[in-house]
Amino acid sequence: MEKRAEMLKHVYKPPESHSGVGFSTICHNCRQEIRDVQCASCKNYSLQCVICHIAVKGCSNFCINCGHGGHTMHMMEWFKNHDVCPAGCGCMCLDESPHIDYHS
User: Fold this and answer.
1) pLDDT value for 101
2) 39 and 29 in contact (C-beta within 8 Å)?
3) Based on the number of CB atoms within 10 Å of its own CB, is 10 exposed (0-12), middle (13-18) or buried (19 or more)?
């Protein structure tokens, strides 16, 4: 056991630090790039629901293709009766994200 421990001291390489996944968006108010929950320029929340137009602070869903989305409950209600993005961009969000099932 001591030999194994001695060998591992010289062989072990600690994992590299990982900063996580990041994304940026454009503020719907001042058009500045946002990398946080709030816009550093105008202080508005960075994510806005395309259905109610209120800032999204809790559970949310956004299309990986067009980027539109909103409050989870609003999106679930919308996609029970529609196949196209509620923003009117023409994206077929559910087809672009087949692993999401809003119809359940």
Assistant:
1) 55
2) yes
3) exposed
